[in-house]
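I'd like us to work through together how a protein chain folds, taking it slowly. To get us started, please write out a protein record for me. Go ahead whenever you are ready, and we will take it from there:
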Amino acid sequence: MSKLKHLALLGATIVCVGCASIPPGVEPSPQDPWESFNRSVFEFNEGLDAYLLKPVVAGYRFVLPEFVLEGIYNFFSNYNDIYTALYNLLQGKPDYAFNDLMRVVVNTTMGLGGLLDIATPGGLEKHKEDWGQTLGVFGVPSGPYVVLPFFGPSNVRDTVGIVADLESDYLLRLLPDVALRNSLTWLRVVNARNTYYEAGDLLDGAAIDKYSFMRDAYIQRRAYQINEGRDDDEPLMPVYENPYQ
């Protein structure tokens, strides 16, 4: 029943946002056939961010000292390394998978449960993988670009990957304490938004079509990640960026 309620809420959101017009002079992208609809969802997400997420994150940054913010970031980053190790193994990269697993071992045992990142300065490189990237490595085409409510830029393949990521996430699915699970989920959302807190301000102040920039950056970045940077230029946005280093 819970899943049905969530799907109903998501469907209601999509219906309510309607379709937005494409600004004059903006060239349509062949990878974005649903641009009018995507822009409406983008505007919804921008409003949600401006009136809910960003004020919450501003308070989060004001109340907590930087070393606490860094510790929270490191904790979730260490947790994500577990899944990154699995995805790298599935993608046929056992050396990367071993590296990621060693990051988890080192940071969990020597880094106070992951609150400290001991592995990176120790020479264990940070990677970031997900189900969408894994499907891309398997040869699944990306499909059209799509903007998801709450989740933001995606495509058809990565949307399937997001669902798989959520279904396999221990903190979301298996942690028995509901109150703790919900608290950690909200903390993850705030931590994720905090990572790009200043980047959003830079885009807001730039004389660009923010939607087009975000779309092109996402498409380029995902291609770069899946191809391991072999055939593509550097992405418009960094593939991995630790704001505390």
Notes: The two ends are 43 Å apart (CA to CA). The chain has one domain: 32-226.
